[in-house]
């Protein structure tokens, strides 16, 4: 089963609610929310207030991707705003285990994110504690970038470990996903695919979403 998580980073913010409902209606399984702080990544986007505004609007799980420093200081706000998943970057969390516990303590599903160059060895010892691993297939900070193929073997490596250790962890992939790049990701074991520009820049967003999903299922 392949799940699609449209990234609202590529949506029209002047009609955000409408654009979330449009992808929900078209069969999206999660809504991906990119939070950037201008420190960990060179861009600034949105905070808990956007999660709070979307929460009553959609039934879909809200998948909050934190690209921020000092994540611990903001987890409670995102949890109370209604996040279902909170994912944090390994590269930005010196006390990763503590951060994961903090997310869990608010009843939110914790996940960890790896930049394209970060090896999966860095998360070996927290796999029992998390619900999701998110692989970046672009350098975080912006939508609309080109998919980095060298990440795919890492996805396969983790999928093998998950099977071997009989763990229940979603493998999410984020960056440059379209009808073509989804194929090697699903083959490698991805279960959730984030797509921003490939959906929101299309004239017919629902059709674009369905085409990506079908490519992933074939
Ligand atoms: C990048 C973000 C992504 C981004 C994906 O830092 O984490 O979620 O919105 O956008 P596309 O699908 O356009 O690469
Ligand atoms: Zn993201």
Automatic annotation (TrEMBL):
The keyword Metal-binding applies. The active site is at residues 34, 174. GO terms for molecular function: D-ribulose-phosphate 3-epimerase activity; metal ion binding. It catalyses: D-ribulose 5-phosphate = D-xylulose 5-phosphate. Keywords: Carbohydrate metabolism, Cobalt, Isomerase, Manganese, Metal-binding, Zinc. Its cofactor is Fe(2+); a divalent metal cation; Mn(2+); Co(2+). Gene3D superfamilies: Aldolase class I (3.20.20.70). Its EC number is 5.1.3.1. Catalyzes the reversible epimerization of D-ribulose 5-phosphate to D-xylulose 5-phosphate. This is Ribulose-phosphate 3-epimerase. It comes from Psychrobacillus vulpis. The lineage of its organism: Bacteria, Bacillati, Bacillota, Bacilli, Bacillales. The gene is rpe.
């Amino acid at each position: 089963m392949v799940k699609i998580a449209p990234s609202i980073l590529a949506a029209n913010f002047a009609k955000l609610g409408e654009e979330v409902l449009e992808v929900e209606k078209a069969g999206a399984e999660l809504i991906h929310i990119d939070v950037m702080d201008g420190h960990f990544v060179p861009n600034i986007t949105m905070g808990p207030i956007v999660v709070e505004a979307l929460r009553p609007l959609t039934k879909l799980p809200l998948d909050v991707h934190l690209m921020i420093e000092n994540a611990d200081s903001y987890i409670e706000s995102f949890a109370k705003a209604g996040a279902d998943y909170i994912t944090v970057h390994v590269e930005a969390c010196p006390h990763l285990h503590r951060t994961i516990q903090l997310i869990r303590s608010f009843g939110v599903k914790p996940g960890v994110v790896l930049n394209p160059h970060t090896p999966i060895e860095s998360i070996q010892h927290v796999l029992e504690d998390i619900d999701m691993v998110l692989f970046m297939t672009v350098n975080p900070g912006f939508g609309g970038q080109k998919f980095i193929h060298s990440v795919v073997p890492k996805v396969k490596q983790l999928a093998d470990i998950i099977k071997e250790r009989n763990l229940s962890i979603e493998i999410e992939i984020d960056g440059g996903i379209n009808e073509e790049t989804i194929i090697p990701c699903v083959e490698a074991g991805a279960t959730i695919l984030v797509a921003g520009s490939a959906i929101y820049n299309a004239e017919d967003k629902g059709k674009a979403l369905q085409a990506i999903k079908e490519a992933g299922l074939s």
